[in-house]
Every structure is written in structure tokens, then in C-alpha cells.
Amino acid sequence: MTFCTTFFLFGLLGLTIATVIPRADPITALSASQVAAFKPFSYYAAKAYCQPAAVLNKSCGINCDANTAFQPMAAGGDGSAIQFWYVGIDPSLKTVIVGHQGTDPNKIVPLLTDGGFFLDHLNQTLFPGLNSSIEVHNKFADEHAKTANQILSATRAALQKSNLTQVTLVGHSLGAALALLDSVFLPQFLPGIQFKTFGYGLPRVGNQAFADYVDANVQLSHVNNRQDFVPVIPLRTLGFVQPQGEKHIQDNLTWLDCPGNDNPDSRCSAGDVSSVSTGNLSNHDGPYDGVEMGGATCKNVTGTAGIATAAASTIHAGCGALFLLATAFSLLPLQLL
Ligand SMILES: *[C@@H]1O[C@H](CO)[C@@H](O)[C@H](O)[C@H]1NC(C)=O
Ligand SMILES: *[C@@H]1O[C@H](CO)[C@@H](O)[C@H](O)[C@H]1NC(C)=O
Ligand SMILES: *[C@@H]1O[C@H](CO)[C@@H](O)[C@H](O)[C@H]1NC(C)=O
Ligand SMILES: *[C@@H]1O[C@H](CO)[C@@H](O)[C@H](O)[C@H]1NC(C)=O
Ligand SMILES: *[C@@H]1O[C@H](CO)[C@@H](O)[C@H](O)[C@H]1NC(C)=O
Ligand SMILES: *[C@@H]1O[C@H](CO)[C@@H](O)[C@H](O)[C@H]1NC(C)=O
Ligand SMILES: *[C@@H]1O[C@H](CO)[C@@H](O)[C@H](O)[C@H]1NC(C)=O
């Protein structure tokens, strides 16, 4: 019960601490063609839920068929202790693609709200020379470290084979967090390469210094669907901050550009999902302009549905009721914004 208790206390603490979020630039709508430009990357993010073998032989259903030019290079993970990942080449989009599998709503929420996580310094071997004030979610960092070097080698090989100079990182949920860590990690070892990152349902990954670093160095777009509350956890009161680049899908399905870090406007996630009663976890998997995440659309979902990460599976069964109660409490302070 330690997790539960710690977390519950954090939730209560949040009640007494109103966070100050600065207002930012105007919110603007994306044009139809701007929204459409996300679609290949949305399918690439969804593809990361499919079995590595199916990704490699291009038999993963709609998520493979949507990007016919794709040439798989490497794929791995087991979908439980290690999230699936893949690397390949898209000669038509002129980019190497690196995809990270996420996890389902019932697994990601405990990972972001139970008491077993904290902000930790980056591993200096994987992230040499970064400002020591940068801190990230320890479990995201642990998960990232499991495949970091394999993905670096595969990405380097794909760049050499294709002679391309662009890498695009994609992922949904936990996979978006891993893609974001990769977009800080990979550029250090691949000089002269351009990087772009597309995250879907991205949770808060690190502290203000991390968000500042991402804002200055990473070309990030992260799409939040309606009242999905994963993008607003872990709480800002615990020191977590979203980087810029939010695109927020409205109830009427238009996409708005939400500038700033955790834009508090009611048309953006931090303002829209102001309490647990306005959050809706069914929105986490999509649709993102018609694209569903979570493995439901992989041709063969055996082994991909109900993915647990090693970290996520540590949630105690007995936590249930207290967890929900504390989640309610911990989202309350958002109403004070
Ligand atoms: C592709 O790989 C999957 C998973 O191993 C297998 O079930 C399927 O038969 C393979 N398809 C082809 C066309 O090789
Ligand atoms: C940092 O990462 C390297 C390479 O993955 C690993 O060998 C090392 O044990 C890690 N250090 C810490 C303190 O976790
Ligand atoms: C690879 O790209 C470089 C410049 O980007 C170019 O000079 C070189 O000729 C290309 N090589 C091949 C084999 O296409
Ligand atoms: C590290 O970041 C802090 C604030 O986040 C800043 O004050 C400091 O100057 C930075 N140090 C270096 C060496 O960039
Ligand atoms: C959709 O909703 C947003 C506010 O969330 C509004 O600004 C926009 O005008 C609406 N668009 C349409 C086509 O109704
Ligand atoms: C949550 O979202 C789902 C999917 O859009 C919808 O069917 C359901 O009615 C929503 N629930 C609430 C309470 O709004
Ligand atoms: C899915 O894969 C399993 C083995 O992993 C196989 O037994 C099953 O027939 C496959 N189903 C489909 C629809 O391809």
C-alpha cells in the first residue's frame, strides 16, 4: 500500500498548490492539409503496436498498408518486458522512421500516477553533456535504456543504406514518451541528421528543464485527442511539464495548435481536462483523424492487446479504489488554473 499512500498524499498536496501556467500565443486551427500531413505518421505510430515479425514482413494490416513505400530494417521487443519497436526507411517521405509501441490506457495511468515513480537525472552515458538540471520520469528512462543502443545501431544502418538525412520518431502513449527520449538521445550520436517527432497521447515526461531543452532542440508535434487525460499526468504539482507542440483535437474533431507549455485555454488539454470528471480515457487510443492506436487495427493482435510494461504491471490490485479516489483528488488542482 506504500505506492497508494504516497500517491494519495501527493494528490492531496496538489489541492493546496495552485500552479501558475503562463498564457501563450494565440490558438489557431490547423488546415485540412496540415491535419492530413499527420496521417502517415499516425499510421506509423499505430504500426508500433503490431508484432515485430508482422512489421518486418509487411503483413500488419492497415498500419502496414497505409505506407506502402516502407522498407523495414529492424524490429524487436516482446510487448511485455520490452515494448515493441521498429526502424525502417520511407523513401517517399524521404525519412528513416523509428517507431515505439505504447501501452493501453489501463496500464499507462498507473505508470503516471502511482507513487512508484520520480523525476531522475538522465544517464550520462546515453545523454552525455546535457544540463544536469534536466530530469525525467525514472520508469520512462529505464524503458528507453533497454533498447536505446539497438535502436541507435539500426537507425545508423538505415541512414547509411538510404543515404537519407532525416529521421522521424513516432509513438503513442508510453511509446510517445520513448520517442521523445529518443529525440533527445539519438541526435547526440548522429550529427548532421535532422530529426522530427510525432507523439500521440504523450504524457508529461520530464521537468521544466527537460521541457525547455525539448522546446529549444526538438521539432516536436504531440497530438492530444479530446478529453484524454494522459497528456495532463503526471501532475505539474509533481514538477512535470509538457513541452511545446501540442495539437489538440476538439469535440467537433477540428485540430487546434496550442502554443506554449501546458496551455491552460479550455481548447487545449491542460484547460480542457480540468478534472477527472471531464477526462475520458476512452479518448486515449483515438481516433486521430481516423487512425486508432493500441493494436486494435493490427492484422494479428495476438500478444499486442493488453500489453503490460514491466513497470506498469507493478501496480497492486488492492490499489484500485484508492487509486481512483486519489486520481480524482490529483486532477482537482487543475481546476485552479
Ligand atoms: C508474417 O509474419 C507473421 C508473424 O510471424 C506470420 O504469421 C505471417 O504468416 C507472415 N506472413 C508472410 C506473408 O510471410
Ligand atoms: C547508463 O547507461 C549505460 C548504457 O546503457 C549502462 O551501461 C549504465 O549502467 C547506465 N548507468 C546507470 C547509472 O544506470
Ligand atoms: C549520398 O548523399 C550525399 C549528399 O547528401 C551525396 O553527395 C552522395 O552522392 C549520395 N550517395 C549516394 C550513393 O546516393
Ligand atoms: C542549466 O540549466 C539551468 C536552468 O535550467 C541554467 O540556469 C544553467 O545555466 C544551465 N547550465 C548550463 C551549463 O547550461
Ligand atoms: C470546433 O470547435 C472549436 C472550439 O473548440 C471552434 O473554435 C471551431 O470553430 C469549431 N469548428 C467547427 C467547424 O465547428
Ligand atoms: C468518452 O468517450 C467515448 C468515445 O468518444 C464516448 O463514447 C463516451 O460517451 C465518452 N464518455 C463520456 C462520459 O463523455
Ligand atoms: C495470429 O497469430 C497466431 C500465432 O501468433 C496464429 O495462431 C493465428 O492464426 C493468427 N491469426 C490471424 C488472424 O492471422
From TrEMBL:
Residues 102-236 form the Fungal lipase-type domain. Keywords: Disulfide bond, Signal. It catalyses: a monoacylglycerol + H2O = glycerol + a fatty acid + H(+); a diacylglycerol + H2O = a monoacylglycerol + a fatty acid + H(+). GO terms for biological process: lipid metabolic process. It comes from the Eukaryota. It holds the Pfam family Lipase_3. Coiled coil: none annotated. InterPro entries: AB_hydrolase_fold, Fungal_lipase-type, Sec_MonoDiacylglyc_Lipase. Residues 1-18 form the signal peptide. Belongs to the AB hydrolase superfamily. Lipase family. Class 3 subfamily. This is Predicted protein. It comes from Laccaria bicolor (strain S238N-H82 / ATCC MYA-4686) (Bicoloured deceiver).
